[in-house]
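Supplementary notes for students who missed Thursday's class. We covered one full example, reproduced here. Read the sequence, then the structure, then the short commentary at the end.
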Amino acid sequence: MNRGIYEAASGMLVQETHLDVITNNLANVDTPGYKRRISATSDFSALLDRIEKVSEDGETKLTTVLPADMPFKGREVIGSVALAAIFSEDVMDTFPGVLKTTESQLDIAIDGKGFFALTDSNGETFYTREGNFGLDNNGNIVNNNGLTLQGEGGAINVGNNAQTVEINRQGQVIANNEVVGRVAVFNFERPTYLRHHGKNLLTPTEQSGEAENVENVKVWSGALEMSNVEVVTEMARMIEAQRIYEGASKALMTHDEQTSKLITSFSRG
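Structure (token representation):
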């Protein structure tokens, strides 16, 4: 088995995935509230070289160990090069984007950490930093896709006859000079592990933890938080990924040529 071919081919596949992540970031550079994703690479042996070990608290846990310490039952590992590189994970960069002033009183941006909660028609809850909202025909505050913004007591309804609707610094929704609700903001223990669901919506994962209500909410009214994607940074990452891909491609062709020569030489003997 030619380890070099596997290593080069897997490297090319990894860089393709990196390019997909970067391309998606660039496509959302003008999407309000979008958080760019950062990809990470690991080697395949890191996933395989794990054994079950009983810890001091009596629980059985998976523990990563070095290949040299694995019980291979008489088999000896030749070489230390990983058999393949794999795409490990991609995480969300929670660094805030810049604020853009708008003329709409229902455009809001979170001042600090946290996410808005949105509920679809099936009752499923999603999270986002995108704060451009409006009103539906029933007087509910909704986003551009019709998902309902959640307040501290559920959906925020201003009624069908509201002449003026605004949101103050404390997140209170004021319709016809009366407070009708307060915008709820939620945060997570590890928000970098939130997954993009599509349409700039996020869903919790086991790694991110459950949503926790944020107290003392502060929002900016009449403003939107823009994407935290920096075009120059993403272009630099794209060039780097392309060069690594080209290098892995050349290594693959070199290993293939050497293997071909080796086969030809031994076949003649």
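Commentary. The helical segments are 3-27, 44-48, 231-268. The first strand starts at residue 37 and ends at 43. If anything here is unclear, bring it to office hours.
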